[in-house]
Predict the structure of ATP-dependent DNA helicase Rep.
Amino acid sequence: MQLSHLNPPQREAVKYLDGPLLVLAGAGSGKTRVITQKIAYLIEECGMQGRNIAAITFTNKAAREMQERVAQLVSGKSARGLIISTFHSLGLQLLRQESRHIGYKPNFSILDAADAGKIISDALGTTDKQLIRSTQSLISNWKNALTDPDHAILQATDDAGVHAAKVYRAYQDTLQAYQALDFDDLIRLPVELFRQRPDIESQWQDRLRYLLVDEYQDTNACQYTLLKQLTGSRGQFTAVGDDDQAIYAWRGADIENLKNLQRDFPKLHVIKLEQNYRSSVRILKAANTLIANNPKLFEKTLWSEHGLGEQIQIVSTKDEEHEAETVATRLQAHKFEARTRFADYAILYRGNHQARILEQALRNHRIPYVMSGGQSFFDRAEIKDILSYLRLLANPDDDPAFIRAATTPKRGIGNQTLEKLGSYAAERHLSLFAAVFETGMEQQLASKQYDTLHLFGDFINRLQWRAEREPASVVLQDLLTAIDYETWLFDSEEQRAAEQKWKNVQDFVGWINRKSDDPEQDKPPTLVELTQKIALITMLEGREDEEPDAVKLSTLHASKGLEYPHVFLVGVEEDILPHRESVDTGKIEEERRLMYVGITRAQRSLTLTYALKRKRAGEWQVIQPSRFINEMGSDDLWFAGRPVTDKAAAKARGTERLAGLMAMLKKE
Ligand code: ATP
Ligand code: MG
C-alpha cells in the first residue's frame, strides 16, 4: 500500500500499532486523513477484517464521507462489517443486539429532543419553556455522568434539586413504558450494560480489535468511558484531536479527556502534526494569531507551504439585511471573477436564527444553496407526521407516536377520547395502542368514538403485519394513500405551503426508496432499522442528500472538520461571536475556539462581515464588531476595501460606527 501521500509523522501515525496513540494537531493538518488511511492500512497491510475495526466520527455526514474515502482505498469484501459511525450510531448498533439484557426490545424507539421535552413538561406539570429546557439539560448531565435517578435524589442539596431528580425518575419510567430511549441513553446504556455484564463487554472487545476516534477533543465523559471499555486493557486505538477546536463543552464535552488519556493510558504515544495542507498562509496566520490569545493546553505549531493567498476581507455593513445582500453580491462577483462553482462557497454563522435572512438574499439573487445544521429535513412537521406512523409500526409501545398518528390527519379521535384511553392505559400499565383493543375500553367510550378508535387500531395492525413482510417503500406508499395525506395537507394549508410540504413528503418517500433498494447493502434495511436511523440523523444535521452545485449554509458548530475553498463568516460581532451569554459566564475561550474553527474551514479566501446595527426585540441596537477581529492581527486583513494598520483600523471602525449611527438617526 502506498503511503507516499502522507508526510513522515502522518506515516508514523498510520503505522503505529504498539499501543494507544494520540495524534494531537491543529486544523487542516491531516488528522482525519490519518484515520482514513489507517483503516485502509489495517485492512490491506495488516490483514485485519473490516468487522474488527470501528472508526468514530463526530457527525453522520463525516461518517459518510469517510466511508466513501475508505471504499476507494480497500476492496468491498475485506471491508465488510467495518463500522464507521458516530458514538451514537455505534451505541445504537450495540443496543440493537443487546437490548434484551437491559429490559428493552430491539425495536425500541428513539425520542428526539422535542418528544423528550414533552415528557419532561408533563412530569413537571408546566409549559414553561425555560424550566423544561433547564431540567432537560440537568437530566442530560446526570445521564452523561452515569448518575441514575436514585443517586440524583440522594445527591440533591435542596428542594429544587430533589424535585428535579424526581422528575428525572418519572421521565425514566415513562421512557421505559414507551420502550423508548433518548440520545444520551445510546451511550449511557452500553456503558451500564458493560459494567453489569463483563462477559458481554469482553465479547465486544473481541469483536472490535482496533478503534479510531476523530475529533477526540469533543468527547464527553460517558463516551470516553465507552471507549475505555471497548478497548479494554489492550488499549489498541488511535485518537486524533485538537484542543483548540473543542467547541462542545455546552453539551458536556470535556477537553480534560485529552489529559485523562495520558493518565489512564501511561503507555500513550503522542504524535504531533505541524504542516497544514488546507489554508493559505494568510488565513493560517490569522487563525494562529487569534488562538494565541487562549491559554495553551498543549504546545503546537502550524505552518503551510501554500502561497500567501488573498487578503482576508473584513466588511462592515449597515444592518443585517445589508449584510446578507452584501454577502450575496460579493459571492456572485467573486464567483464570476474566479470562475468557481457555487459549491466552492460556504456561509457560516453562529446561530441558526441568522440563516433566514441569508436564505432570503440568496433566493433573491437566484443563488442555489443547501443548509446543514439547521432545522433538519426530518424535523419538519409533515415529515414528523409520517414518521410517527413508521415509529408506531416499529414499536407499538411508542405513545407519543401513537398520539400524533391517531390525530394526523384528523379522523375524529379527539382529546376526550385520548384522555379516556390514556387513563385506562395508565391504570393497567398498557401502551395506548394495546389499550385500544381492550374490551374494557368499549365501556369507557360512546360507540361512535370507540368505533373510530378501533378502526385506527385495525389499520395500524394491518400495516404492521405488512411492514414485517414487505419492503419499507411499498408499505410507506400504501400508507400515504390510505391516510390521504395529500388531500389533508391541501385542505389544511395554503396552496403554496401545501405544495412545498407535499414535495418534502415525496422527497422523503424517495429517500426511503433509495435506502431500501441500495445495492451496496447485504440485505435491505427493515422499517425498524430505517426508523431508528432517521432518529439519529435528526440529531445533528440536516438533509442527507445534497444538491450538486450549491452554496453551503451552516452553523459554525456543524462546519467542524469540513473545508471549503471560499468562506464567508457573517455576524462577526460582539454579542453574537462571542455570544453574549458566553461573555457573561466567562466562556470566552470556547467562543474563540469557535471562531478559530470558522477561520480554519477556509482554503483560499475568507470574508468576515458584521452589521453596524441590528434589530433586537423590535428595537434597533448599535453593534460593535467582534473583539476577535482585532485579535487576528492586522497585517493580512483588508477592511472594507482598503488595508489599514491597527490604529487606522480602530479609527476606521470608529468612523464607520459614527456613519452607521448617523444613518440610523436620519432614518428615525
Ligand atoms: P480539522 O482539524 O479541520 O478536522 P484535519 O486535521 O482533520 O482538519 P484533514 O481534513 O485530514 O485535516 O486534511 C486537511 C486537508 O489537507 C484535506 O484536504 C486533506 O486531503 C489534505 N491533506 C492532508 N494530509 C495531506 C498530505 N500529506 N498531503 C497532501 N494533502 C494532505
Ligand atoms: Mg478532521
Residues 572 and 610 are 5 Å apart (CA to CA). The mean pLDDT is 87.
